[in-house]
């Protein structure tokens, strides 16, 4: 194990190791609810059945989008594919650089082939996931909570994450919430609140205590 750690943090592998650590941190953040699953998704603006060769002939943005679409970008969440690409790059780098004796020149020489091979490996690995995500996309539309009232089930503050229960067609749903900056005091469990907005690129909503104000 110590030898693997030394190899992983050697100069020829450190970039891939750093990217792999970021990937692990991303998925841990998803699991604990700090980040939204799709926050790094991009719209590649290309038809699903587009022909890659035609896009490359056209040049420009179309060729880039076609190239990425060929490797399943746009068909699956960006970070799902990149996670497999980075894991593959790291594994190939660690294995091949052992034969290169830790040479920086050797590491640079295999960098481009490594990325290309990793893209193809990620494409093959992620192909079975495409139908799964297509079914998810045709599922229930996400709920727009803005303007709805809710009841706190966990106390919340401006810097303290809480949870609120929202009734959607008599079904209770829980969302992560924080108080609007205008509130100086924390709200307690059981208090009624109104949902003001979703915090940009975050997995929680901003709330305010429900008063007799007009919204």
Structural class: alpha+beta
Tell me, rounded to a whole number, the average pLDDT. 81
Range of helix content: 40-55%
Tell me the quaternary state: single chain
User: What is Rg?
Assistant: 23 Å
Characterize this entry briefly.
With 215 residues, the chain is of the alpha+beta class. 46% of the residues lie in helices and 16% in strands.
Summarize the structure in words.
The protein is of the alpha+beta class and 215 residues long. The protein has two domains: 2-41 and 77-137, no CATH class; 149-209, Beta Barrel (OB fold (Dihydrolipoamide Acetyltransferase, E2P)), CATH 2.40.50.140. It contains seven helices and five strands, in the order H-H-H-H-H-H-H-E-E-E-E-E. It has helices at residues 2-8, 14-32, 52-58, 60-70, 78-99, 104-126, 129-137; strands spanning 149-154, 162-168, 171-179, 192-198, 205-209. A five-stranded mixed barrel has the order 1-2-3-5-4. The model is unreliable at 45-62 (pLDDT under 50).
How is this fold's topology laid out?
Layout lengths: L1 H7 L5 H19 L19 H7 L1 H11 L7 H22 L4 H23 L2 H9 L11 E6 L7 E7 L2 E9 L12 E7 L6 E5 L6
Parallel strand pairs: 3-5
Antiparallel strand pairs: 1-2, 1-4, 2-3, 4-5
Helix pairs in contact: 2-5, 3-4, 5-6
List keywords for this structure.
7 helices; 2 domains; elongated; 215 residues; alpha+beta; OB fold (Dihydrolipoamide Acetyltransferase, E2P)
């Amino acid at each position: 194990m110590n030898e693997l750690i030394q190899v992983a943090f050697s100069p020829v592998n450190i970039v891939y190791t750093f990217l792999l650590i970021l990937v692990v941190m991303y998925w841990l953040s998803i699991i604990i609810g700090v980040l939204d699953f799709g926050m790094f998704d991009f719209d590649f603006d290309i038809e699903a059945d587009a022909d890659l060769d035609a896009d490359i002939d056209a040049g420009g943005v179309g060729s880039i989008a076609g190239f990425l679409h060929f490797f399943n970008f746009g068909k699956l969440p960006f970070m799902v594919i990149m996670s497999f690409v980075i894991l593959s790059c790291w594994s190939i780098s660690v294995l091949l650089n052992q034969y290169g004796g830790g040479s920086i020149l050797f590491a640079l020489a295999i960098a481009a082939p490594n990325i290309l091979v990793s893209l193809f490996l990620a494409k093959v690995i992620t192909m079975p996931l495409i139908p799964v995500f297509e079914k998810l996309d045709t599922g229930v539309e996400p709920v727009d909570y803005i303007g709805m009232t809710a009841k706190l089930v966990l106390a919340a503050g401006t810097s303290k994450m809480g949870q609120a229960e929202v009734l959607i067609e008599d079904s209770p749903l829980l969302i992560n919430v924080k108080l609007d900056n205008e509130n100086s005091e924390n709200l307690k469990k059981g208090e009624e609140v109104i949902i003001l907005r979703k915090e940009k690129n975050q997995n929680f909503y901003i709330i305010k205590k429900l008063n007799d104000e007009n919204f």
